[in-house]
Specification:
8 helices, alpha+beta, 11 strands, Cathepsin B, Chain A, binds 2-acetamido-2-deoxy-beta-D-glucopyranose
Amino acid sequence: MFYWKTLTALLVIQYHVYSYSYGNNIDVEKIVNFVNNNPKSTWKADTYGMKTMPIDFVRQRINVNRKYNGKHFLQQKGSIENHSYQYGESIPTTFSWLTTNKTTCKMDRIGDQSNCFSDTIFALVGSFTDRLCLKTNGSMNEHLSVEYVLSCNPDISGCSGSWDYNILKFLKLNGTITGGYYDSDEGCQPYSVRPCGGFLDRMPCSSNISYTPKCKKKECTNDWHVYRTENLTYKLQNWYRIYAYYNDFYAKRDLYNNGPIMTTFSVYDDFLFYKKGIYERTYSSKFLGLQDVKIVGYGTENGTSYWQAANSWGTSWGDNGFFKIKHGTCSFGYYVVAVEPNITAT
Ligand SMILES: *[C@@H]1O[C@H](CO)[C@@H](O)[C@H](O)[C@H]1NC(C)=O
Ligand SMILES: *[C@@H]1O[C@H](CO)[C@@H](O)[C@H](O)[C@H]1NC(C)=O
Ligand SMILES: *[C@@H]1O[C@H](CO)[C@@H](O)[C@H](O)[C@H]1NC(C)=O
Ligand SMILES: *[C@@H]1O[C@H](CO)[C@@H](O)[C@H](O)[C@H]1NC(C)=O
Ligand SMILES: *[C@@H]1O[C@H](CO)[C@@H](O)[C@H](O)[C@H]1NC(C)=O
Ligand SMILES: *[C@@H]1O[C@H](CO)[C@@H](O)[C@H](O)[C@H]1NC(C)=O
Ligand SMILES: *[C@@H]1O[C@H](CO)[C@@H](O)[C@H](O)[C@H]1NC(C)=O
Ligand SMILES: *[C@@H]1O[C@H](CO)[C@@H](O)[C@H](O)[C@H]1NC(C)=O
């Protein structure tokens, strides 16, 4: 009996520690039914039309080789915010840039990284775009180009993914031009990696990871653009990290005062099938890898406190591309990056 218990415990531990290997399929219906039949669950899952999901799909979307531990953040390059707190300072208990009347800036755009590990660029350039709009009081509301940073930054490995530091360095030194998401006809260089694989009505991806688009330094790839606006370059004036493990007040304050922020979190398999509500990791879910996203809000609903964020998996995924996640789940919101745009374009 004792032996049996020990063995079960070992198996349970292994179930959590071991991730998928090639050839495995994720049992989508099992995960989705488990979540949706749990009366205590604060979120709903969707099969997105799949019975099983080949592990290749996951490897096209999440960089399973990127592992993270908390210490890593503090060792990374970049200055940490000094957390100066003024007595009596307060922020709302619930806030979202999607619904606030503080601005006319449009912050509900959702990109689709497709089979390219450009999530970090989507999150950083997305918050850069939003904060530039806020800082210009709504007069600059064009999306900045993910494509340009992805293709022209020599210090990152393009669609194979990269840490945030080299992206931030490029945004500060070289900056980026304008450019919307795939097929958006917006800006000078829109995103060029065609949506594939993954969720709903998609063509399968022809390879696991897309090739990195070629850098086009001095031309607009969007024909419509040239006739409309200038292809100016926007740079960051500064950026900093906010460590919010012990106290998330500073991250929330920065979000509320200055605009969306970026965070990194751990993705478990059940998150792939999130549809709505406040996501919380189910106990039996398996770790897949890391994802970087843009936080747009926070709050408390029915006693559960959450962050609200924009993912870069298209609008068919989740709540029109957005999701809410329970505070403290998956290290979400512990490691935050905030950007400060320079509003003078050159
Ligand atoms: C909160 O409670 C209301 C009313 O019971 C319900 O409609 C809503 O879905 C709940 N929200 C969450 C995230 O559970
Ligand atoms: C925090 O303070 C240090 C020392 O005064 C300074 O070098 C650093 O730039 C500050 N960080 C931020 C984000 O302002
Ligand atoms: C925005 O909404 C808040 C809260 O609902 C309200 O107090 C404030 O007057 C509104 N501001 C504007 C400019 O409409
Ligand atoms: C935006 O509005 C604020 C407050 O009215 C003002 O101080 C600031 O100079 C404005 N910024 C720009 C870029 O117009
Ligand atoms: C980025 O800026 C550096 C320094 O000015 C320059 O040498 C480099 O060519 C620039 N890279 C791009 C892609 O513009
Ligand atoms: C993805 O990579 C795996 C392992 O290298 C390989 O077996 C599979 O065929 C690849 N899938 C595609 C669509 O290239
Ligand atoms: C802007 O685009 C035009 C046309 O593609 C090009 O001739 C020009 O050099 C570009 N300017 C800058 C600053 O990149
Ligand atoms: C913003 O950019 C302009 C133009 O490149 C530059 O002159 C100015 O010093 C920059 N401002 C800051 C605060 O970096």
